[in-house]
Amino acid sequence: xxxxxxxxxxxxxxxSNYIFGLLKTTxxxxxxxxxxxxxxxxxxxxxEQLSDTNKLKDALQNIAKIxxxxxxxxxxxxxxxxxxxxxxxxxNITYDRNSCSGRVERCISIVASFISTSGKSFPxxxxxxxxxxDCGDDYIKKTDIALNLIIDVCKKININMVLMDGGFTCExxxxxxxxxxxxxxxxxxxxxxxxxxxxxxxxxNHSCFSMKRNQRYIKVSGYYKNMKCYxxxxxxxxxxxxxxxxxxxxNANLPAKKIVKIYSKRFKIESGFRTTKQKIGLADCQSRSAxxxxxxxxxxxxxxxxxMLDVCPYFKNSVDCYLNFIRQKDGQKTPYQKKRKRNRIxxxxxxx
Length: 352
Fold this sequence. Notes:
Blueprint: H1 2-11, H2 16-24, H3 31-38, H4 42-49, H5 53-67, E1 74-83, E2 94-97, E3 104-116, E4 121-129, H6 132-135, H7 142-156, E5 161-164, H8 171-179, E6 183-188, E7 193-196, E8 199-202, E9 217-224, E10 227-237, E11 243-250, H9 256-263, H10 268-278, H11 290-310, H12 319-329, H13 335-351
Parallel strand pairs: 1-5, 5-6
Antiparallel strand pairs: 1-3, 2-3, 3-4, 6-11, 7-8, 9-10, 10-11
Helix pairs in contact: 1-5, 2-3, 2-11, 5-11, 7-8
């Protein structure tokens, strides 16, 4: 615990009011609402928004190291979009596909890395992505951003396994991870060609993946882009109640069922994105400056990491439950409680 308080005290010198304001305030996380809570002038909060980005990044990575020290570490790579429908003049603005709505929308698009253990996950770093039309010759693919994040993380922390979404499964990343002598598990598209038993074909058309009645898992060794690896097929229930088969690629020689179970840990980054957006205000920064937007995202990730350090089984290892608890302790009501109170008032009026 002394190490935790030391890291938090280091933050107090340059960004504590802004970070703890994100943790304690309900509703929209802008400078006005944080000023009302922290009783600090808006000028000081604006100065904290212009803090040294490298200091925020180092503090975030130190917390991740403390929270995962001496444990089996998973590196999770994924991207997300921060919706800015009216932010035409915001720097780093671009257009990307929103996975929730399925539409291409105006947003800030980032690729992030999380360090996860058996029970907790901590943000480690992120980088912006922009389409070719917005950045011209400076365009970088999402896979290249993910590769740079993996290399940077592996230099600072001993990673045991990398978990990736199917969008980052490319030859360059898989070869680099193998060179780093790290195991990986990733989703694999059914429309890719692989070599199994000397036959090159689409992975979905290989007869070795045909399953019988109650069979759920099949693991087969083969080659992808001249790399020896293992392919896993998993039959599961789809969205419409019909069974579907999804594929995974890995270099870990583990049972098929265990590979699928380990890959399910990747969804911790999805819950982290959801919590930072709904509870800590990842999308609430109204500044046009790229520096303030970057520092705001790092501050939100820091608030999430600090909460994750204090989370215990009492809160079901959930940052959402922890934030609801500390906000109720300060006498603040969550949006859900406010809605229930309004409904009770309406009910009394109808009955009276």
